[in-house]
């Protein structure tokens, strides 16, 4: 999610952190049963919104869609009263003491009951029926400066048919797995009340609740509820109150965008916020969050990287390259793969290395998996720049979480860009006892890649020249050229 507090025009995007779930270990326990303590009961889905340098905020989304935030800094417990794990996306019932604002001031395990676990997000075969709500706060000095036509063209393209704009980027980056329906898309201007909690405190929940009520009054409950996703577009200048460019609910179907160059008018911000709904986090580089410019999930104007598109179920690994462990990578021997650039095809476009030969691999915090993919600045990646282009991009993720996705549907694997390898060169990854070779192009934007692991020294691995002198493997069939998006079906659903 995007913040306005940064240098120049580059705005950081909010972090969504499951690690902040701390419960009783992270906050002081009040005398909850003391006389005069007022308590409230909440039931619904546990959700989270990251607020960048202002921290994050937990809340509960009720069955009717109403969002109720906890007080700032208040975390849910790690376990419920029956010692069951609590994580974003679970359905729970809780009682909590409230502060002067009527928000939970503490949530105790004994007062929390898990009703249902978090479910896996649906990330393929998705056709979003998106409602964009242009929020007009004229009553408090923040009139809207965009209309429904402008927003519709921003999302669907100049012809409003889904073959341009943000919708086209979604189709390109997901290989058609996640699209926006042009026939079901709607954009309305609404004028909800603007209480102090909105215009002074920038309450994301109050913005959403007020906008939802206004939209239901305009459209009717049945029409409103038929949409699958909802975006709130704030008026120009509202970044002076809400110091972010974009925001998203995790998990959920709601996003917030500022009317700004780094908000509504930047497709990568709209994509980042939407993908947050499905559980993807930000991408790192050099130990800094957001700094990966190879992906919309960092600061890039490019499709998600291989660690992200694979997690979304949008791509498959190269044959034999989805789980490269010590049993497959023999020390001192080069293994060969032909990798198409990710823009070309969703099939066989990445390698996943599980370096179980390292002593640190079994450590729940230190163990890392690697993702390798070839990136070329074409189609959805046309704006990719710098060393990311025409090279092998290498990312790391937390291995424990990556190997058990069902236990961490909405957890942060901390995807980090660590290096790149150009064609006709090689790179030693000493932290992984691995050498990565970029060989020659064997087809249009298809690069031959070698991997070699070693025990003690990289000198155990052959030179690139030696590997190139070996008989070549049979060439991979050329992937089909990208075809223009086909018109979505009038019957849409998720």
Automatic annotation (TrEMBL):
Residues 471-494 have a biased composition (Pro residues). Residues 129-429 form the Peptidase M11 gametolysin domain. Keywords: Signal. Residues 1-26 form the signal peptide. InterPro entries: Peptidase_M11 (IPR008752). Residues 466-494 are annotated as: Disordered. Pfam families: Peptidase_M11. This is Autolysin. It comes from Tetrabaena socialis.
């Amino acid at each position: 999610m995007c913040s306005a507090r940064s240098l120049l025009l580059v705005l950081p995007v909010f972090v969504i952190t499951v690690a902040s779930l701390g419960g009783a270990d992270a906050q002081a326990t009040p005398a909850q049963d003391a006389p005069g303590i007022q308590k409230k009961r909440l039931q619904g889905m546990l959700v989270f919104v990251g607020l960048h340098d202002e921290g994050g905020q937990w809340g509960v989304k009720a069955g009717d869609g109403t969002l109720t935030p906890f007080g700032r800094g208040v975390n849910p417990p790690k376990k419920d009263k029956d010692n069951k794990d609590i994580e974003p996306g679970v359905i729970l019932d809780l009682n909590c003491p409230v502060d002067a604002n009527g928000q939970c001031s503490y949530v105790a395990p004994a007062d929390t009951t898990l009703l249902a676990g978090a479910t896996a997000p649906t990330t393929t075969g998705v056709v979003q029926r998106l409602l964009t709500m242009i929020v007009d706060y004229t009553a408090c000095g923040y009139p809207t400066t965009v209309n429904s036509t402008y927003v519709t063209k921003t999302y669907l393209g100049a012809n409003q048919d889904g073959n341009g704009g943000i919708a086209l980027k979604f189709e390109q980056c997901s290989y058609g797995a996640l699209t926006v329906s042009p026939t079901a898309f709607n954009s309305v201007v609404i004028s909800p009340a603007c209480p102090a909690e909105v215009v002074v405190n920038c309450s994301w929940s109050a913005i959403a609740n007020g906008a939802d009520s206004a939209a239901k009054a305009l459209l009717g409950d049945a029409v409103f509820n038929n949409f699958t996703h909802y975006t709130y577009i704030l008026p120009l200048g509202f970044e002076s109150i809400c110091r972010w460019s974009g925001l998203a609910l995790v998990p959920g179907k709601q996003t917030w965008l500022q009317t700004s160059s780094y908000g509504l008018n930047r497709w990568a911000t709209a994509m980042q916020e939407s993908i947050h709904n499905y559980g993807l986090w930000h991408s790192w580089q050099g130990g800094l969050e957001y700094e990966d410019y190879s992906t919309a999930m960092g600061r890039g104007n490019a499709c998600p990287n291989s660690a992200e598109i694979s997690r979304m179920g949008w791509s498959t690994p190269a044959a034999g390259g989805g789980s490269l462990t010590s049993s497959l990578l023999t020390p001192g021997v080069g293994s060969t793969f032909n990798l198409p650039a990710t823009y070309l095809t969703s099939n066989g476009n990445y390698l996943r290395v599980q370096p179980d030969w390292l002593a640190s691999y079994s450590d729940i915090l230190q163990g890392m998996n690697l993702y390798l993919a070839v990136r070329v600045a074409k189609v959805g990646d046309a704006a990719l720049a710098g060393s990311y282009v025409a090279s092998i991009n290498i990312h790391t993720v937390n291995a424990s979480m990556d190997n058990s996705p069902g236990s961490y549907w909405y957890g942060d694997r901390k995807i980090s860009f660590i290096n790149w390898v150009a064609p006709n060169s090689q790179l030693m990854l000493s932290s992984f006892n691995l050498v990565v070779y970029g060989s020659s192009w064997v087809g249009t934007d298809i690069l031959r890649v070698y991997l070699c692991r070693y025990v003690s020294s990289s000198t155990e691995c052959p030179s690139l020249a030696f590997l190139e002198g070996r008989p070549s493997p049979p060439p991979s069939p050329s992937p089909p050229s990208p075809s223009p998006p086909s018109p979505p079906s009038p019957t849409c659903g998720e």
